[in-house]
Design brief:
Blueprint lengths: L2 H15 L1 H5 L6 H22 L10 H27 L2 H8 L2 H11 L7 H18 L3 H5 L5 H20 L7 H16 L13 H26 L4 H8 L1 H14 L5 H19 L14
Helix pairs in contact: 1-11, 1-12, 1-13, 3-4, 3-10, 3-11, 4-9, 4-10, 5-9, 5-13, 6-7, 6-9, 7-14
Length: 296
């Protein structure tokens, strides 16, 4: 096994897991944070793409550009709902529900693409659903009392959008992952340009600006380079195992730094989601080509 690639991917997944924690330090609502993230990522990755000479090896297929643009729209909307979920619920809850995306891909494959339904896959879906109910911490009594379900619902919408990003990514074969992300983050800048409340940036402290730019340069730019530079050098089981570092780091930061204390039922729900997720990572998708998309 390539140790350098193993370390790179481990670092990438660990940093991915800290994004919820850092997003709360930015002092920005989800849309304004995504706007900054898109600008920083576009600039950083474009500079790398040009300086490294990657642009010389690109293949520009018109039909594929359309797929990349559609995927970019899903990606940006996914980020907006993802960060909005952090504003309404605990990071642990949002991250756990967000990681249902591979399960949603499985469901879309069954009902839209007519993929073969396997018994163990059906069991994974049921387990993930039950785990989501438990991790949300919402009971029928809470619903009757008017308790907000907004946070878990936003995380679920983000998971559905990310599932669509994964599916569109499967149809991208010619453009490099670097070009795909540059185009998609640029789309994010153009999409959000008319809707961002620019006055909110005037009230940010130096620390807020630091964390906002950090999420764009580090969580998207640097992590992206580490992520894709390591994938080809590692076997699928290792990649699948390291994927768990993302939610694990998020939950540990939430518990030990943010102060969130999950109930026993929520802990059970987290374990159920992880078990269900393991099927999509190490089961029938082993031979599938990895899509050229970001994790979050």
């Amino acid at each position: 096994m390539n140790k350098a690639a193993f370390i790179k991917l481990s670092i990438a997944m660990s940093i991915f897991g800290s994004i919820g924690f850092f997003s709360r330090l930015t002092g920005l609502p989800s849309m304004e944070l995504v706007f900054v993230r898109c600008i920083c990522a576009t600039v950083f990755l474009s500079l790398y793409w040009l300086i490294s000479g990657q642009y010389r090896h690109e293949t520009w297929a018109l039909k594929e550009m359309g797929v990349i643009i559609v995927g970019g729209i899903f990606l940006v909307l996914n980020w907006i709902f993802f960060f909005a979920a952090f504003e309404k619920t605990a990071i642990t809850v949002a991250i756990s529900i967000y990681n249902l995306a591979p399960i949603i891909v499985l469901l879309i494959g069954w009902f839209i693409f007519r993929d073969k339904i396997r018994l163990i896959g059906f069991g994974a879906v049921l387990l993930a659903f039950a785990g989501t109910v438990l991790i949300s911490g919402i009971s029928p009594a809470d619903l009757k009392s008017g308790m907000s379900v907004q946070g878990p619902l936003l995380a679920l919408i983000a998971a559905c959008l990310y599932a669509l990003v994964i599916i569109t990514g499967k149809y991208i074969h010619e453009a490099s992952p670097y070009l795909v992300t540059i185009i998609q983050t640029l789309i994010g800048v153009l999409m959000l340009l008319p809707f961002v409340h620019y006055s909110l940036y005037l009230h940010l402290t130096a620390a807020n600006w630091f964390y906002s730019i950090f999420t764009g340069v580090v969580h998207t730019g640097i992590v992206y380079l580490l992520f894709y530079s390591s994938l080809r050098a590692l076997p699928t089981p290792v990649i699948s195992a390291l994927t768990y570092l993302d939610p694990l780091v998020a939950i540990l930061l939430d518990v030990f730094i943010t102060g969130f204390t999950p109930s026993w039922l929520q802990i059970l729900g987290i374990l159920m989601i992880f078990i269900a997720l393991s099927y999509t990572l190490t089961g029938h998708h082993k031979k599938a080509k990895k899509p050229a998309v970001l994790k979050c």
